[in-house]
Structures are given as structure tokens and as C-alpha cells.
Design goal:
This protein is α/β, with parallel strands linked by helices. Helices cover 18% and strands 37% of the residues.
Length: 137
């Protein structure tokens, strides 16, 4: 059994997943609405957009898509959590996600981890970044 975050975008899913691949590595798989069988194809406006995106990180994955017309809602009530194995990993990922984004809480020490922070990336996705090392929980 596994859980996979699924993030919805307002037309920039492909750019987001290319960016995430540059940040995290892994392999990206993209299916467009135009890839659907003819009887199931979406509107012409959606045709070039992404119906399903997957960033495969070898046992973990991030999923996403572009929403259909007028259905996009900005992210509310959840965020994507990522934990690094070292403080250096955490700092590198946090800095990369911050590029053209907004730091909501700077990386800092907390009682459960030596590095913890919140960042909203340039696509509006909010990330909770922390370090696994030295956890007391």
C-alpha cells in the first residue's frame, strides 16, 4: 500500500513536473488529454494539456494533472511533505523550490528535526521540507 500526493495545476503541469525533475531527479511520465481514445478526448482547449503526470522517484511518486476548464482551485488545506536524509539535502531542495517562489517559513531547527521550513514554489504548490536525521519522535 502507498500514498501519493496528487497536485492539480491550471495549465502549467508539464512545466511544473519538468521543474520537479530538475529538483528531485527521477523520471517523468506525461499523458496529454489528446492521448485519450477518440471517444474520450477532452475539448480542444484541453487537448495539449496534461491529463496525468508522474514523477517516479524509485518507490515514491508525485502525481498531477492540469484541471479541466474553470475547475482550478488554488491549493488549500494540504501541502506536500518531503524529508531529506541530510541537512545539506534539505537546504539544496528548499533553495531550489524557493526559486521564483515564496518562503513561508525559513529553514530552522525544531525539536523534532534540525531543519524544517515551508515554501510555496513558483507553481503555487506548498512544500513542507524537513530532515530525517536527529529526529526525536
Amino acid at each position: 500500500m502507498s500514498f501519493s500526493p496528487f497536485v492539480m495545476f491550471d495549465g502549467d503541469c508539464e512545466a511544473a513536473f519538468v521543474f520537479y525533475q530538475s529538483v528531485f531527479g527521477g523520471n517523468v511520465r506525461l499523458l496529454r488529454y489528446s492521448d485519450a481514445p477518440l471517444l474520450e478526448q477532452a475539448s480542444a482547449a484541453l487537448s495539449p494539456k496534461i491529463m496525468f503526470a508522474q514523477l517516479d522517484l524509485g518507490g515514491q511518486e508525485l502525481l498531477g494533472c492540469d484541471t479541466s476548464e474553470n475547475m482550478y482551485q488554488p491549493q488549500q488545506g494540504m501541502l506536500v511533505s518531503w524529508q531529506g536524509d541530510t541537512e545539506e539535502d534539505v537546504e539544496r531542495i528548499f533553495e531550489a523550490l524557493s526559486e521564483a517562489g515564496m518562503v513561508r517559513k525559513a529553514l530552522d531547527y525544531t525539536f523534532w528535526t534540525p531543519k524544517y521550513g515551508l515554501v510555496e514554489d513558483k507553481f503555487g504548490v506548498i512544500w513542507m521540507i524537513s530532515c530525517r536525521s536527529h529526529a526525536t519522535l
